[in-house]
Amino acid sequence: MSPSPELSGNNCRASASAAPAKKRTYDAVNSKTGQVELLPINGSSKRVFDVVSSDEGKVELLPVDGPSSARLPVDKLPDDAVVTIRVFRFLEDDCDAEEDWEKELKNVNTGSLLWLAVHMLPKMHSVRGAKYGEWFTIHHIRVYAKHFKSGYHMCNGGCSLPAKTFGATSAVKSLVTGRKLQQGYFWFVSPCEQHSKASLANNGWEHISVEGPFDGRNLVEECDRESCSVEAKDLQEVVRNISVCM
What we know:
This protein is α+β, with helices and mostly antiparallel strands and 246 residues long. It has five helices and 13 strands. The strands form three sheets. Strands 1, 2, 3, 4, 5, 6, 8 and 13 form an eight-stranded mixed sheet that branches. It starts with 23 loop residues before the first strand and ends with a helix. The N terminus is likely disordered.
């Protein structure tokens, strides 16, 4: 997918015996109470979030396996919080998924959960739908919360200049028909130095895993069969059904 317009003083020196700082990862749902709250976790969180928008366009995190009410506003997180999110990448050919940059999202653009539907369905992002290909992959990445406020840049030819860190657009609500979505979707950029892996320290993000490629036409058929809306929980269920049947 190529989204439309688809990139020290001595006083600060730590002592040799000082313990290295730990990254703080966060969950959104207290498993004991079921309430939405900040839960700091030592090490890596197993919870994965979809990036969604509020009606006001604010970035929120919705657990992939949580209740629809369990939305965590990113602006409630400390800047150095590390969260694991799910992003979607479109391909013109399923064979493209074997390219190194596709496997690890090096210097490419991706989108949020709602972008998956907006891209595939007709009369939303494009008149016919699937402008950037009918195949898609699902990636899990870790990012610093602060970089949801970093700028978005288009990638061209595997180059993400001038992007230096993970970045995101503001919520996109406009459709090709002139209508507007109630809640928007997001595009992301994932820059990385050539011949190296992206890292939280250098790029503000790191790649965790990839699934697919999946045939986006199955998503369209599933949406038609279930008469699903573009509500986040409906789309999560559609994605779940497609990935289970793979």
